[in-house]
């Protein structure tokens, strides 16, 4: 079969070259974007008098028929056509003849693939944002029910201070909100039309790039054609944004794994999103969060892979850039599935409120409150108060009790300046609710955070 670009060549390429050179097995995913971009291009060519209106109409009708064939599964993908662009154009010529040969006027595969890939990435940006919003909604729904649920806040994976479960979940809402903001920032920054740059230097044809941008939903056109055909920053950005989302998912997944263990038992994962062991019948394994944690590695690899491909490329387009799509496709599919299954695993899990409260009663979570009490009530410098509190903790350890339930008498053995009202300050609930500073874990502060996030969500619709 003669290739559309074969005029300069005296001999056909080897079959092995066809297999090595072709991107069709994976870039056929871009068929919808390719057809959309080609219809816009033909529409503009007719408007500018470069094509007749009849030719543009034939092209649009033929391209829509090809779209139907692909979606019906009757389209024949032939690896000899190399990529989705040549596959569509070859079929178009078969369907409508001479008019199909005119479609490629004033464009190159370089700007064609750039517009197809950019359209795909822009669409996926919006889809991922939508799924992130759904995850946030689930977390917010749970948070509103658990503003009073005590939970041990940790640093270094050691008990630190009492917080509430809502406060903990809102930390992940904050992360996913930033992820949305990054995706939307990338969308705005990259909503620029590449088409019309041709191979690298523009075209002598009297085209109207602004018109094509409007047809395809871009905000503007690119400024420099040499940069445009070789620019894959938009692909790097979605890979980075997905890697960051997956990092946040992985952190949450790690906590779900820990929390579902017998050592913690803070949550019970639904049977729908758990698996068993092939040999140990008692096992209920947290495979969903483990896979979420593991899949973070593959999206990190996709980001590093594309950075490595691009790092030494001279301007403008190089065939190396054919390696830009598979990692993006894989990362998009991975984050989409990961967010959806995380949403369902969290929505269906059982929260063991009593076990969380019980865990707060060990580890001396109100130790900082004793130090604050000594500063505020006894006018003791913080560094000295810190030392006294350390002695109190050691004394509680010796008695085999938690600091939060230590009697006033025992505390006064550590330091006589401690007053009778100290027990109130060592209460776990008091400790949590004392942190009323903006962004703190007090129930009042947590509820304000919920209001802030709810207002943000409402403003998005």
TrEMBL record:
One of its GO terms (biological process) is L-arginine biosynthetic process via ornithine. GO terms for molecular function: argininosuccinate lyase activity. Pathway: Amino-acid biosynthesis; L-arginine biosynthesis; L-arginine from L-ornithine and carbamoyl phosphate: step 3/3. The keyword Membrane does not apply. Residues 365-433 form the Argininosuccinate lyase C-terminal domain. It catalyses: 2-(N(omega)-L-arginino)succinate = fumarate + L-arginine. GO terms for cellular component: cytosol. InterPro entries: Arg_succ_lyase_C, Argininosuccinate_lyase, Fumarase/histidase_N, Fumarate_lyase_CS, Fumarate_lyase_fam, Fumarate_lyase_N, L-Aspartase-like. PROSITE patterns: FUMARATE_LYASES. The keyword Thylakoid does not apply. Keywords: Amino-acid biosynthesis, Arginine biosynthesis, Cytoplasm, Lyase. Its EC number is 4.3.2.1. Pfam families: ASL_C2 (PF14698), Lyase_1 (PF00206). It comes from the Bacteria. Residues 7-301 form the Fumarate lyase N-terminal domain. It is found in: Cytoplasm. NCBIfam families: argH. PANTHER family: ARGININOSUCCINATE LYASE. Belongs to the lyase 1 family. Argininosuccinate lyase subfamily. This is Argininosuccinate lyase. The gene is argH.
